[in-house]
Write the structure tokens for this entry.
Amino acid sequence: MTWPRAMAVALGLALAAAPVAVAQVLPPAPGSPVAAPLTARVDASTVRLVSGRMVRDLHVVIPGGGDGMATINWQAYGGSRSAARLARIAHGRAVVPIRGGELHFRRRVQMGGGFDRSGGFCEAIDLTAVGAVMPTTDTCPEGDGVAREQIPARVPEFTMYSDSVGAGLQEVSGGTARAAGDASAVFDLKVCRRLTYLPCPPNPPSVLTAVRSQPGSVGDIAVVDVGYNDWAQVYGIEPTITALRARGVKRIVWVTLRESERGMGSINAMIRAAARRHPFVQIADWNAASAGLGGFAADGVHLSGGSAVNALADFVRHEVQKAALVLQGS
């Protein structure tokens, strides 16, 4: 064997016997910082009633997030406003894309006719595939029947109490539906109604009595448009507010009266004073909003034409939407 060849063989044997270095991934040392998952936030959340369907829209933002997929297990609940509990009417699982750290989720569930339907949605959103978590750990209610308060996202609910002036909404086709908008609405509109005092014929229950006896849900919002049959000395605002709050009402939309008759200004002053005492009382100034409008009867307060009916319906819908936004942000 020649010298160069002998040296090559010896070198090869030495390399074969040498230990081989293996790369290892070591756990972080105690106390080393660990990257926290991104925290998502709900940017917009609504549930609406649209043409017999309950429509859920949810927008989630992941600050600093990118693209990926989220898994959403959802449940929908619905039923009559008079029901004490709502039934689970649909559920499912959806894989939703995340683009630029934003997730949009929409579902439509058939609810049936009528604007006195009630319902809502809950979702369990899994963002682990994109290294993120939701800000809360709320879980969906257990069981097929749940109380409204257990549902995280609900259709806004309101009840409108009125006398013969507001009852004009029922005199034109579509008047109450126009006032309801995309909320769940119950219209308790009675001729000759008073706020707390004894009525005039045909002797309907007062607003106070109606609130206390109404079955099911009064709603988070109440609209009070009563006073044309009253006088200031017996206009019981405080007992009515107490009763509404006892039924779970969070915001009261109190409609001012058109000051076309004697005494209406005194009642309007009482309404405004109540709003100063109670931040949850929202003044809906129909007296100002209806100034210069046509479509009223000779007394200047009752609705006699479609233009006045539509104006009041739009006014009520707008005020309810405003109240719902306040509650959503609180």
